[in-house]
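Because discrete structure vocabularies remain unfamiliar, it helps to consider an illustrative case, giving the amino acid sequence and backbone structure tokens:
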Amino acid sequence: MNALRVPLIRDGLITTGAVEKPLVQKPNVLANLNILEVGCGGGILTEALAKLHSKVVGIDPSEKLINVAKQHAKDDASLDPEQIQYFVETIEQHAAKNAERYDAVVASEVLEHVNDKIAFIEQCLGALKPGGSMFITTINKTTPSWLGAIVGAEQVFKLVPEGTHDWDKFISPIDVQRILSSYNCNTILVHGMFYQFWSNQWCWTKNTDINYALHAVKMREDFLLLTFRDVHAGFDFNNSLYFRIHATVADSSLDQIFAWHVTRFYNVFDSFR
């Protein structure tokens, strides 16, 4: 899944102007950015973000998983120990000590396991700077998601242990967007993700019936959401994964508000070409 998640986060932060202009096409593209991964597990995504030179903090309530993540990071010589930190903490505990600290907060494959989603998102946003980005990947609450994530993944193909998922805890993109909006966050991207079990690969899809990714920005009074004038002129927007995603969203039948944001992205970008 990192093949989708890492470009989503990288290009999303470039798109919103969080990335410094000289770094846009550099290997250390996320340098000087502070990122929090909530529910980091064994650190698969945390490490990938650290390798782009962001300062990443991974938190998880499971001491066992955090120990696994720490050991794996220690064994990887390509990782700078100063780029990554792990803590055995809940988001409530961490946000209380780190208010508005992070440029991005990531909750990947976590929300579908959370009972109180409103409180969880509220705490995540409490740790996010105004103007910062919230990235979520999770599972929609649909009949196809029950068939794919529970019947298929758990019972038929045994990709994860049975009982890993509870369909009642799944949540639709529009419901996530409503929660984010109530905390002054503007959703700028929703897109489907699909697991090709025959090739063991994840790919982007217009269909959000099962897995989907969402990017929202915590608004501030002086924050201009579309800051292409400030983005490095050499960045190839047309070939950017992020803009290809937006193009497919624009062609899909998603909620009109998403299409409106896509239109605004292209209108502003075209005016600066």
Remarks:
- Residues 223-235, 245-273 have pLDDT under 50 and may be disordered.
